[in-house]
């Protein structure tokens, strides 16, 4: 088997394992749902089949036992219990271990299987744990004849495995039927001309047989003694996953309900290629800006028309490419549900986890980097946010805590809210801690939101006792740093006794954005347009700074001014006309004072070098149409500087 | 920096020599990517003066480093002889591209590592961590800077202005 096929197998297996996890978690919420049990069973069956085909014999055996346990659930001989779900999730993790070829020196896998069988057996109607699927012997002997048809072999069917499975169902006297095997020169090696016949002395059901041939094109006859011939070609409902490496992902149509692909063909592409594509588009956008500039200088109308046409095409290409890279929030929800499920059991707090807006899409880079911070926040919510069941009862709340994750679009941003209905932040404790850590002075007066924001500072942990789950004093500051690294922002709202909400705002995409190009003392800077709220003229009497509190009254709201000339130690004095660009990061606003606005343009964001990691004023750089580099202002930092102005006013007042 | 050296007999090392003020510096050829005529520099406000700008090297934004401040060499106005040397150095085990400004690029030459001398423990204003060694040549003292250490110290330094 070559590496490509192996890669496809691994990808498919990963999908199946994810689907399996989703199914199991759904099942823990709706233990009686037969469709879910069937979906889980199908996933297991497919993993087993393709695993065996790719030489993961141990894994296939393991999954087979796993599947057998679920078969009892499927046939209604045992009922789903939380214990079974827990063990099944553990078993699911072991499948990943098999795939990454991890050894199992402690016999953990066997232990999980034994426990799973015992758990299933315990709920069953004294059926025991025998791994016999569809154990419904009729007592009447049956005779089965089958032959694989079509290109079953080419699609990866393995008659030996099928026969092994049939043997486990109780087949005896298995004979090969060579009657249709042609002479050697007429033999097509890709077609299986051999048929097999066998006896089931204890009888067998049609369902059990169909299960064996779930993924194969087959001609079969199942004959009861002296009964009529029952000859129905069974069409494969789903191709064996390895069959078509570049075709649609082998998702079971029924398992995802409304989330399933809506009929359109999909294609799997290596993420790396998308990154290359994005790089190329980025270069195109830069080249396009240059062309446009040259065309305008030439004043040749034909050239300008052509340049504008190319510009339009480039913009379209950019949008399409960015859409390709969009990934739904759903893609990371699975691990969150799993995390909460596990935590809820470990620390004994029942939790219901509600997800809204999981179809909201973000750039894949954002999603990738977002998963860890969200895991951290969810962990905090379960561990610190939610009270113990006893405390909840005392507070008159339902025993089951509620954690909600909501995602929605808001302009060019995506807002993700993570909220719990727990005890809320204890401001006195935060205050005491912040004073002890020297974050604030003993007499500092802070607004509620500023107080909440303290928990995002380095070295701050509100848990009085460090628990196993969280609270080692690292964390929320790292979360904040990651979010800001994604050019997003984070805020904390909390009502004591009612719960805490973290609000993340993230840009839709990272690679290319609309920028507002401004000039300060002859130097050009770009400000992400999504963060720009409005642009106003600086009144002539405010050109010079006036002391420590520097504010502008914008429609009855005071906006702190950040004088970029001063911040950047620019040479010369400000001109007669200065412009204020009002930016917003989260709920914080600031007015950046610039010499003039040049215009808007598409900018391709380049990371700043590590040599500039200490420079916080810029979040990146971009290359302009004329080939020079312009720095991109870091809006959260600007807002933070503005906040500093505001704090100074608080002290002065 | 070792790949090329290993192919040479014993201790020979190919370097490009450059001039900063009156000081000659050697840049190992194995680290050198290209030598450019000066490009337009975009100032990075609030950054340390040793990396006060960035340049566009064929679509990549590359920091421009001034080694002179590390060795206390006075600034010189840019001339026709000024160049930018694009080098690749390891920083925290990851390769990084940096441009170094030079008042002039002199020649490509081979140095015998055996003739390299350590910096005398006293009597030098150069920080020892920034120097791999020095060579005595007919034209004067040739300094082999420790680029990784110099850039690591820049990467850990925060911006000068807290803003």
From TrEMBL, chain A:
SUPFAM superfamilies membership: ATPase domain of HSP90 chaperone/DNA topoisomerase II/histidine kinase, CheW-like, Histidine-containing phosphotransfer domain, HPT domain, Homodimeric domain of signal transducing histidine kinase
Residue span(s) of domain CheW-like: 512-644
Alphabetical list of InterPro entries matching this protein: Bact_Chemotaxis_CheA (IPR051315), CheA-like_dim (IPR004105), CheA-like_homodim_sf (IPR037006), CheW-like_dom_sf (IPR036061), CheW-lke_dom (IPR002545), HATPase_C_sf (IPR036890), HATPase_dom (IPR003594), His_kinase_dom (IPR005467)
A GO molecular function held by the record: ATP binding
A GO biological process held by the record: chemotaxis
CDD domains linked: CheA_reg (cd00731), HATPase_CheA-like (cd16916), HPT (cd00088)
UniProt keyword list: ATP-binding, Chemotaxis, Kinase, Nucleotide-binding, Phosphoprotein, Transferase, Two-component regulatory system
Catalysis performed (reactions): ATP + protein L-histidine = ADP + protein N-phospho-L-histidine
Segments for region (Disordered): 242-264
Annotated ranges, domain Histidine kinase: 273-510
PTM annotation (Phosphohistidine): residues: 45
Compositionally biased residues, Low complexity: 242-251
Listed GO CC annotations: cytoplasm
Cytoplasm listed as a keyword: no
Sequence ranges assigned to domain HPt in this UniProt record: 1-102
EC number: 2.7.13.3
Keyword ATP-binding: yes
Known function: Involved in the transmission of sensory signals from the chemoreceptors to the flagellar motors. CheA is autophosphorylated; it can transfer its phosphate group to either CheB or CheY.
Name listed for the protein in its UniProt record: Chemotaxis protein CheA
UniProtKB/TrEMBL annotation, chain B:
Residue ranges occupied by any CheW-like domain in the UniProt entry: 12-156
Pfam family, one: CheW
Top-level taxon of the source organism: Bacteria
Example of a GO biological process term: signal transduction
GO-annotated cellular components: cytosol
CDD domains named among the record's database cross-references: CheW
UniProt cross-references to InterPro entries, sorted A to Z: CheW (IPR039315), CheW-like_dom_sf (IPR036061), CheW-lke_dom (IPR002545)
Database matches in PANTHER family: CHEMOTAXIS PROTEIN CHEW (PTHR22617:SF23), CHEMOTAXIS SENSOR HISTIDINE KINASE-RELATED (PTHR22617)
Protein name per its UniProtKB record: Purine-binding chemotaxis protein CheW
Organism lineage string: Bacteria, Pseudomonadati, Pseudomonadota, Alphaproteobacteria, Rhodobacterales
